[in-house]
């Protein structure tokens, strides 16, 4: 049962998504561009700092509220929702809970409004799930750290003004805040991709990049703590995105099955179509129950790794299956762009990979369940 405050958040975001996000979605999917000005509109609504305490300029809400925002945005445009997630969770939330007062005062005002776009650099060309094997390095040089290495598949990379970057300092993973203008920091051209095209990705490149010592986030060697603290709400956000796009695909296939007639009767009276619709509805309801139940147990001081792994493992694949069913129900229309289900199908695949692969979730769950 959602609180009255949660229901108000849902109404606000749903109206915004329908009136502001929906009209621009196809154009940005086709152009492969992230709508930064629309992100700033979310900032004006106070939704970028959804998990940040009110005393520091945020909304002071919880993981359930964050899931609501991602759910509703993804119903209209999963790609834009992913860019929002990379900014609001991978940078803003992660930065806030790892940073000190001086760092928050310096960076929060512009990232909470969306004036500055944030990103997070963890994956590398040779290292994905195996984060402990990362090759980006940092070394202390007087009042600076010097970073060398490359990050890849970084959402918001092309637009970012500031990035939260993980690097090995004396073989210990450490977190730094890197500004676009720092000497030695560049980004590659946009990386073309299958789906989520309304967000962008690129490499982050560090060539003797000089980072002021005060931009160390947390402590030397404290990167794993920062990473693990943020990973659970990231996985919930991605799970909620799966729910939003699956809900949209279900609604599209139900309406199409009501409107379309074949062999002298409505499409929904055919048994095989009933199977697609019935199974998809059951998956959507199961996703909703799992995601919001787990979200209620997660916060800055509350951990539920087993639950968040389960939520993303189930939801990512279920969403792809619902999108696939929608294409099948719509037939040729589903394969073409008019109804957008082909886009949601392309978008859904990313969530089986980003934020933890299916195989990583299966490994984590099994390890936790079999631990003595």
Could you characterize what this model shows?
The chain is of the alpha+beta class and 372 residues long. The protein folds into three domains: 4-117, Acyl-CoA dehydrogenase/oxidase, N-terminal domain (Butyryl-Coa Dehydrogenase, subunit A, domain 1, Orthogonal Bundle), CATH 1.10.540.10; 119-223, Butyryl-CoA Dehydrogenase, subunit A, domain 2; 228-370, Butyryl-CoA Dehydrogenase, subunit A, domain 3. The protein has twelve helices and ten strands. It has helices at residues 4-21, 25-31, 36-44, 63-76, 78-98, 101-113, 223-259, 271-295, 305-330, 332-335, 341-350, 358-370, and strands spanning 118-121, 137-141, 144-155, 162-169, 172-179, 185-187, 201-212, 216-217, 261-262, 265-266. Strands 1, 2, 3, 4, 5, 6, 7 and 8 form an eight-stranded mixed beta sheet that branches. Strands 9-10 form a two-stranded antiparallel ribbon. Strand 4 (162-169) and strand 5 (172-179) form a beta hairpin. Helix 4 (63-76) packs across helix 7, helix 5 packs antiparallel against helix 6 and helix 7 (223-259) packs parallel to helix 9. The longest helix is centred in the middle third of the chain and has 37 residues, at 223-259. It is globular. The model has no long low-confidence stretch (mean pLDDT 97).
């Amino acid at each position: 049962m959602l609180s009255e405050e949660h229901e108000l958040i849902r109404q606000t975001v749903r109206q915004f998504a329908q009136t502001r996000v929906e009209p621009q979605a196809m154009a940005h999917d086709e152009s492969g561009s992230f709508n930064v000005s629309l992100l700033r509109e979310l900032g004006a609504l106070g939704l970028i700092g959804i998990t940040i305490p009110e005393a520091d300029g945020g909304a002071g809400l919880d993981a359930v509220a964050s899931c609501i925002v991602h759910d509703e945005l993804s119903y209209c445009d999963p790609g834009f929702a992913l860019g929002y997630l990379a900014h609001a969770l991978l940078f803003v939330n992660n930065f806030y809970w790892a940073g000190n007062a001086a760092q928050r005062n310096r960076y929060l005002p512009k990232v909470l409004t969306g004036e500055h776009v944030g990103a997070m650099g963890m994956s590398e060309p040779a290292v994905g799930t195996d984060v402990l094997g990362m090759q980006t390095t940092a070394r202390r040089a007087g009042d600076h750290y010097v970073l060398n290495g490359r990050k890849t598949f970084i959402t918001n990379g092309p637009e970012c003004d500031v990035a939260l970057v993980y690097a090995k300092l004396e073989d210990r993973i450490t977190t730094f805040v890197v500004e676009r203008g720092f000497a030695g920091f560049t980004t590659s051209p946009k990386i073309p991709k299958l789906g989520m095209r309304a967000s962008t990705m690129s490499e982050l490149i560090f060539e003797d990049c000089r980072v002021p010592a005060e931009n160390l986030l947390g402590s030397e060697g404290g990167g794993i703590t920062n990473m693990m603290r943020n990973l659970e709400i990231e996985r919930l956000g991605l799970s909620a995105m799966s729910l939003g796009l699956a809900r949209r695909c279900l609604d599209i296939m139900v309406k199409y099955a009501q409107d379309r007639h074949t062999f002298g009767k409505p499409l929904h009276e055919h048994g095989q179509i009933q199977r697609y619709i019935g199974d998809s509805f059951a998956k959507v309801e199961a996703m909703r129950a799992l995601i919001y139940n787990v979200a209620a147990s997660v916060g800055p001081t509350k951990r539920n790794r087993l639950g968040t792994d389960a939520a993303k493992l189930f939801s990512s694949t279920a969403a792809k299956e619902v999108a696939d069913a929608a294409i099948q129900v719509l037939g040729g229309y589903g394969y073409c762009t008019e109804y957008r289900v082909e886009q949601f199908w392309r978008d859904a695949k990313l969530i089986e990979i980003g934020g933890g692969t299916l195989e990583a979730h299966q490994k984590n769950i099994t390890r936790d369940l079999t631990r003595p």
